[in-house]
């Protein structure tokens, strides 16, 4: 097993082992998924915060964020609660520091200008090569040379850095990894080597948190690579989905993971009846979405199996959408207009999943001093986004019958356990 590194102490102080009697370290790993992934993670985190006792999502020992998950992880480590981030990112007009989604769609004029200026010498070199080496092969080579003038990204991701720098520079927050009370790692991919880099780790903790988030979320094609210390970085999800091993290596004994992207199973009809029975009927967008999700999810499952082998004394608990969740699949990954509905959807679906898995999760969470609040899971009037129609957690049930159903389930489980013990 990989040797464990204990959590870090105050800035400038060496790492030291946990104090006697201290609860085992708890970590959080958040995957990417564009704006849709961030919206889902906010909804899921608020549901977990409401329905779990014994865990404070602003006081965990270690946070790992990748791509859009880096936004959320950096906010949590800086003291922003899940509910506050909901007000900031989902109900933005009601917050004093609202997030304007338009900043994600500002053209990368600086990138455009640099590529335009490079075009004349590239055209001259390509023309000369074509004249001196006639033929179809030379034409293709010349065309490839001109291709270097194509911008590496459509939108300006420097706006992300500026927004987060303002946010983390006020209200008692910090934009410096070394000043955080908790360990935060934001993972990006080194473009020239393909290696993952964890900003926040020694040697990379001098980089501003806002700049690290920008690098971790620089999805190729949409945003230009981000230059840091002479190296160029792109989206951290290119290498792995969760990078959960970063938290496990730093001593997390319970690691809560959220992955927003799962492949869709169209064999089960959607509740609203609108989803096509065959994804091919959705055209190229549906085919590409399924392909991306299948690759991301398969890679994550491989990682989960590896974590069980390499960290057998750690509990890793994963939350993700149901594979029959048409709302999550058929919504554009980069859409921000449906954020209220989708955040509420994630909130309710996470409560449903927690309710369904409660018997399996109770002993796991109890080992780390966490218990599930059954009253919060069965409360039909709980909702996340103001103005949304309140939904019942158990469809067609009143609060009394929801509680009765839960009690009967528990009674059945206890009777089965008692019978097994007697045998």
The global form is globular
Largest sheet geometry: 8 strands, mixed
Mean pLDDT: 82
Distance between the termini: 37 Å
Q: Which oligomerization state do the chains in this entry correspond to?
A: single chain
Order of helices and strands: EHEEHHHHHEEHEEHEHEHHHEHH
Please report the total strand number as a whole number.
10
Rg, Cα atoms, Å: 24 Å
Number of helices, where a helix is a run of at least 4 consecutive DSSP H or I residues: 14
Low-confidence stretches: 1-22, 389-399
Helix content bin: 40-55%
Structural class: alpha/beta
| Strand content range | 5-15%
Structure explained in plain terms:
The chain is globular, with a radius of gyration of 24 Å. The strands form two sheets. Strands 1, 3, 4, 5, 6, 7, 8 and 9 form an eight-stranded mixed β-sheet that branches. Residues 1-22 and 389-399 have low confidence and may be disordered. The protein has helices at 34-51, 68-77, 82-90, 109-132, 136-146, 158-168, 209-216, 245-249, 283-310, 326-330, 339-356, 358-366, 374-377, 399-422, and strands spanning 26-30, 52-53, 62-66, 183-190, 196-199, 226-228, 231-235, 254-258, 315-319, 371-372. By secondary structure, the chain is α/β, with parallel strands linked by helices. β8, α9 and β9 form a beta-alpha-beta unit. α1 (34-51) runs parallel beside α2, α1 packs antiparallel against α3 (82-90) and α6 (158-168) runs antiparallel to α7. The longest helix has 28 residues, at 283-310.
Could you provide a short overview of the structure?
The chain has 14 helices and ten strands. It has helices at residues 34-51, 68-77, 82-90, 109-132, 136-146, 158-168, 209-216, 245-249, 283-310, 326-330, 339-356, 358-366, 374-377, 399-422; strands at residues 26-30, 52-53, 62-66, 183-190, 196-199, 226-228, 231-235, 254-258, 315-319, 371-372. Strands 1, 3, 4, 5, 6, 7, 8 and 9 form an eight-stranded mixed sheet that branches.
């Amino acid at each position: 097993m990989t040797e464990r590194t204990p959590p870090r102490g105050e800035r400038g102080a060496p790492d030291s082992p946990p104090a006697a009697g201290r609860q085992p370290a708890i970590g959080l790993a958040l995957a990417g998924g564009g704006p849709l992934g961030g919206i889902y993670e906010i909804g899921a985190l608020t549901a977990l915060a409401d329905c779990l006792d014994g865990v404070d999502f602003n006081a965990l020992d270690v946070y790992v964020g990748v791509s859009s998950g880096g936004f959320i992880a950096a906010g949590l480590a800086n003291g922003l609660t899940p509910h506050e981030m909901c007000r900031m990112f989902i109900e933005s007009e009601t917050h004093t520091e609202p997030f304007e989604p338009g900043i994600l769609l500002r053209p990368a004029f600086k990138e455009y200008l640099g590529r335009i200026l490079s075009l004349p010498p590239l055209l001259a070199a390509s023309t000369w090569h074509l004249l001196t080496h006639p033929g179809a092969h030379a034409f293709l080579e010349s065309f490839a040379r001109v291709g270097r003038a194509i911008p590496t990204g459509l939108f300006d991701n420097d706006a992300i850095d500026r927004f987060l720098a303002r946010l983390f520079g006020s209200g008692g927050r910090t934009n410096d990894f070394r000043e955080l009370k908790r360990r935060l790692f934001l993972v990006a991919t080194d473009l020239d080597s393909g290696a993952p880099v964890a900003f926040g780790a020694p040697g990379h903790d001098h980089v501003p948190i806002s700049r690290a988030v920008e690098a971790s979320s620089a999805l190729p094609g949409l945003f230009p690579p981000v230059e840091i210390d002479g190296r160029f970085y792109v989206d951290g999800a290119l290498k792995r989905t969760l990078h959960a091993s970063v938290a496990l290596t730093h001593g997390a004994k319970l690691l809560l993971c959220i992955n927003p992207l799962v492949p869709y199973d169209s064999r089960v009809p959607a509740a609203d009846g609108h989803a096509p029975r065959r994804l091919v009927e959705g055209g190229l967008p549906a085919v590409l979405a399924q392909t991306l999700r299948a690759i991301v999810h398969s890679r994550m499952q491989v990682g989960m199996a590896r974590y069980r082998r390499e960290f057998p004394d750690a509990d890793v608990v994963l939350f993700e959408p149901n594979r029959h969740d048409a709302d999550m699949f058929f919504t554009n990954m980069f859409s921000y207009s449906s954020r209220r509905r989708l955040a509420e959807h994630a909130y309710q679906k996470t409560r449903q999943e927690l309710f369904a898995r409660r018997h399996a999760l109770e002993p796991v969470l109890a080992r780390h001093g966490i218990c599930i609040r059954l009253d919060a899971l069965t409360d039909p009037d709980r909702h996340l986004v103001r103005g949304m129609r309140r939904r019942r957690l158990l469809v067609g049930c009143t609060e009394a019958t929801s509680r009765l159903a839960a009690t009967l389930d528990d009674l059945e489980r206890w009777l089965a356990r008692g019978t097994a013990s007697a045998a």
